[in-house]
Write a structure and sequence with these properties.
571 residues, 23% strand, alpha/beta, disordered N terminus, six-stranded mixed sheet
Amino acid sequence: MSATAPSDLGPYKGHLALEGNDLSIAFGAHTVVSHLSFQIGRGEKVALVGESGSGKTVTALSLLGLADNAKSKGQALFYSPTQQPVDLLSLSDDQLREIRGRDIAMIFQEPMTALNPLMTIGEQIAEVLWTHSLRAQSPTRAPHLTRATLQSQVVTLLTQTGITEPERRADAFPHQLSGGQRQRVMIAMAMAGQPQLLLADEPTTALDVSLRGQILDLLDEQQRQRGMSLLMITHDLNLVRRFADRVLVLERGILVEEGPVDHVFAAPQHPYTQKLMASKPTRSSGASTWASSAAPIRSAPTDSYNYLMEARQLKVTYPIPLGGIKGWFQRGQFVAVQGVNFQISKGQTLGVMGESGSGKSTLALAVLGLLDFEGEFTIAGQPWAKGKAAGGLNRALRKKVQVVFQDPFSSLSPRFTVEAIVAEGLRVHAPQLTAHQRQQRVLKALSEVGMTPAQFPGLLQRYPHEFSGGQRQRVAIARALIVEPELLVLDEPTSALDVTIQKQILDVLQQLQRDKGLSYLLITHDVDVIRAMAHHVLVMKAGDVVEAGEADQVLDHPQHLYTQTLVAAAA
């Protein structure tokens, strides 16, 4: 079968939802997608896979006219069950606006940048419902919605996507939710319009393994009820194997392989597809051994402390409003982390896993001194100071503990150059350095993560948007390394990256741990990453640690039912 020829759709043949014919997309003189032809049958699930920068997302965005400054050629025919097929690429902005959300919806990869920070999530979902009710033309769509009906439908949508306490969460702002919860809000907004075709750009990236299953089950149910078609952009090959009917493989904008999922996964023909299949994080041995399989680096005898980091009965609470008259005089309390104990030795990695909302990220923020906490917490034998004077007293400790966030695009300032971003910590912790000395330190940090001016001309003066997701994460790691910390807090450092880039980033982190004796506190929902990286594991559920121990013991012989569920869902 030709790589650019539409495949045999089997039971979907003659019942198309979307057809791309010789589709090419360019930004200026640079072509990012070249002569792409594909078909999606009505009620079919198609996965579009490839490395970061292969053209997956820009293809989906261009279908709805959302790729700024992109020039598209060819055809993208949308087949509505009730209307004649239309070429999406030939429609005006006003015509596309009628189709977006109602007929074709999209779930974006980065919910924090897609959601309005000034509106509650309930208001944002209600806005979608209200907008589509005004455009309703068929008897199946209500011509108007009352406030009570809107609120009821918002809660129903949040419940369907697995958000706990949906009535309370509806009144929350995006920043008050975890990454996984924000992603589920995006899914609820997409499903609110009852679309015929759903474009899902990494819809489960920020979700833990058990919640991925819930979301996939939800999407399956929507398909069965309404025959919805789905184009899923993902780097999660396990998800593709479980969920999709067919797979399209893009390499640098060119379709190199396509076919039924079972056939492609059983016998990938193209070397690029074979490379993707072999990119799962695994422990290795020999010269390139990963830190998780290497002997841990012990503290020197002269150290006056046993652990680099130690927490005893760590507790984090949030105030919440109370209903009724009682709420006028006092506030309630939500316990996000309850009595957690752990230790991290030098050169070792502690992995923290659990479902979205289990308290993982809250624990990370407490470790960074960004949240008030109860209990005892020490770094290199020194306790975090509390109170008004804590900022100055903790400055030296903050140098020892740095962080790499989940989403490099939102954690790097779009107004700063790479040089300014990476050098930021030096201005606080090493103000005595000259501009030339700072620049040399920046170049050294970037080279340690595999980025040099020889590879990227004008590297220091570039901005974050000029790099791929994996390259931005390397810049984020360099920013953390610049002040020579002893411990890095890694908050889902690879969840937004495709499998090959994920492996590259993990290799970088492993090499840095070996070379520098770094310790890591790794927050992740990816069991494979935990297996590859961690020496010890904490399993959290609803703020409590339900199981802890050496990584191999916990993952290979889980004792708690919750841990067994997480491990089984990742298999």
